[in-house]
Specification:
The structure is a single chain. By secondary structure, the chain is an alpha/beta fold. The chain has a single domain, classed as Alpha-Beta Complex (Spore Coat Polysaccharide Biosynthesis Protein SpsA, Chain A), CATH 3.90.550. It has helices spanning about 15-20, 35-45, 55-70, 105-110, 115, 135-145, 205-215, 235-245; strands at about 1-5, 25-30, 30, 50-55, 75, 85, 95-100, 120-125, 130, 150-155, 160-165, 170-175, 185, 190, 220-225, 230.
């Protein structure tokens, strides 16, 4: 099954990083968040990726062009330029690096990939969010409901700590619980080719146009994911994800080394 990762946005809310690289290339644990997302899909057997590129797409292209050569050990003979690679370990992924326009909206990026996706069910997600969602269970849910599209619904992580009072004094700080938060679109979508009838061109927003129309037509199912999910919109989010990785047990790492 083919997986589309939307990787072309400007990432303006993360300007500290995206002035030089596209947001999917911001590193968590020495690897781009894009790599973490792809490892997640590959763990469940989904290994053919279409990266919908836009802003600074050349950085993502260069990363994958160099990926094989720069992973593992090597010996370089400086006299003749010969390179000998040792202990090469590399992912068995197929990665399609697709230019989808600098200013194209999310739905338009998917529309541009129609010739490669029109033959069957495919998956779509954003290039800036990680989760521990069971992707096979998501696919089974989608297939059992027989709709054109399924969105993964998640509860947004708390962004603000809470205060516990003792009279007029602050007794302690606490993380705001998620239980009161509403559900939002967390990405990790599954689509049938009929979705392309809801995508009109470059100016189509996946969220504001296509998904809303699908919902109105009764063609959008929602898979509720109660587990870990975290987007990377701000520098605070980056620091949170880096801290979780450095803890040695990041909750989105479902794969084995």
């Amino acid at each position: 099954m083919k997986v589309v990762i939307l990787s072309g946005g400007f990432g303006t809310r993360l300007a500290e990083e995206t002035g030089r690289i596209p947001k999917p290339m911001v590193e968590i644990g020495g690897r781009p968040i894009l790599w973490h997302i792809m490892k997640h899909y590959a763990h469940y057997g989904f290994k053919e990726f279409f990266l919908a590129l836009g802003y600074k797409g050349e950085v993502i292209k260069r990363y994958f062009l160099d990926y094989y050569a720069l992973n593992g050990s090597m010996t370089v003979n400086l006299a003749n330029g010969d390179v000998q690679v040792h202990n090469k370990r590399c992912e068995d992924w197929i990665v399609h690096l697709m230019d989808t326009g600098l200013h194209t909206l999310t739905g338009g990026r998917i529309k541009r990939l129609e010739p490669w996706l029109k033959d069957g069910t495919f998956m779509v997600t954003y290039g800036d969010g990680v989760s521990n969602i069971d992707l096979l269970e998501l696919l089974r849910f989608h297939q059992s409901h027989g709709r054109l599209a399924t969105v993964t619904a998640v509860r947004p992580p708390a962004r603000f700590g809470g205060l516990i009072f003792d009279g007029d004094l602050v007794a302690e700080f606490t993380e705001k619980p998620q239980i009161g938060e509403g559900w939002i679109n967390g990405g990790f979508l599954v689509f049938e080719p009929g979705i392309f009838e809801y995508l009109e061109g470059d100016n189509t927003s996946l969220e504001a146009d296509a998904l809303e129309r699908l919902a109105a037509d009764g063609q959008l199912a929602a898979y509720r994911h109660e587990g870990f999910w975290q987007c990377m919109d701000t520098l605070r989010d980056v620091q949170l994800l880096r801290g979780l990785w450095e803890s040695g047990n990041p909750p989105w790492k479902v794969w084995e080394e």
